[in-house]
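Need the bound structure for zinc ion, inputs here:
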Amino acid sequence: MSKKKPSDKQKEQELRNAYITSTVENIFSYVDNNFSKADIHIHSSYSDSVSTIEEILEYVQNKTDLMVIAIADHDRIDGALEAQRLTKEKGYRFEVVIGEEVSTLDGHILGLFLTKEIPPNLSAQKTASEIHKQKGLAIAAHPFYQSRLKDIDEPVANGVGATVLINEKHHFDALEITNGTPVFGRANVKARYFNRLLLFKAEVGGSDAHISHAIGKGYTLFEGKTAKDLYQAIKHRETQALKARWSPFGLLKYAYSFLPHALRMAFFTVLLGPHPKRHEIINFPSRIKIHRELSNQEKQEHSIIRN
Ligand SMILES: [Zn+2]
Ligand SMILES: [Zn+2]
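Answer from helper R.:
Posting the output first, comments after.
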């Protein structure tokens, strides 16, 4: 009996699994070769996370193998400063980088390695130049995420999008092409495509954790161990953005923590109408074929694994 030909969907799933497999293989070889993990995008209860600084630090120390984390609260750095102080005081294994997720007029921008708070509501260009004045790094956070849900209290949590990325290309040090938020899959793929076809910036991954359980679900692999090594790796575009799988229990926890906020947004969106859809200068196909993401090197690695 002839074997049934796999459908396009099955093929796509197989390649998607291959991509994950080769990435896992990569991780082991990298770890062997003195590579470390950093989560560059963690929120604390100083902004809108349910986790306190103490809880985050304990989680990172006991439940992860991260060597560097950045506390990047919305428009403030006081939580990050406290985290850095406490980490040194308690002699934890990892280092804390002072980060801030700045709400710019154009969307969210991550400032890393900061010393002073960056004010919100500036343009992307002005925000990046303020970050660079402090010798920090300006990173487009979840650049292709766009929320159409409305909330009367909170500004829109969008990424900067294609137009800003192109117009302000020289102002960004890196793109967050892996954001660990469970619903950001498509936005992540768009960012990866866009960067590899057009921008060629350093690629970083962060969890965007608002609960401890999410920490490390998106991360950046870099050579070395310290915050300084991470800085150099981003500067030289030698990082890799990866993600860890969510467990069903983790997803449930995430959904539970997000539920009140989601219900609120659903209510106001029905009442006031959604945010208008952002016009992108590039049209992405509605169903992006994951196999195009495989680089030749990854394909080779995949064939080695299979043989
Ligand atoms: Zn954000
Ligand atoms: Zn965030």
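Comments: Residues 41, 43, 101, 208 surround zinc ion (ligand 2) (CB under 6 Å). Residues 8-32 form the longest helix (25 residues).
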